[in-house]
Amino acid sequence: MSNFDLQKLAKELRTQDNLCTADPIFLVMEKERVYGLKSGYSDDYVWLDNEGDKYESLKDINDFLIDVYEGTERTVKTAEQAEEAGFTKVYYQEIDRFKCPHFTRKAAELYITQNAHNLRKPFIYVGSMYRCSEMIAIRSFLMNPQDTFTQLVKLSNRVILSTQDPTTGLCKICGAGDDGQHDVNCPAFVASKFVADFKMKLDREVGNV
Ligand SMILES: [Zn+2]
Question: Cα-flanking dihedrals φ and ψ of residue 143, to 5°?
Answer without folding.
Answer: -75, -35
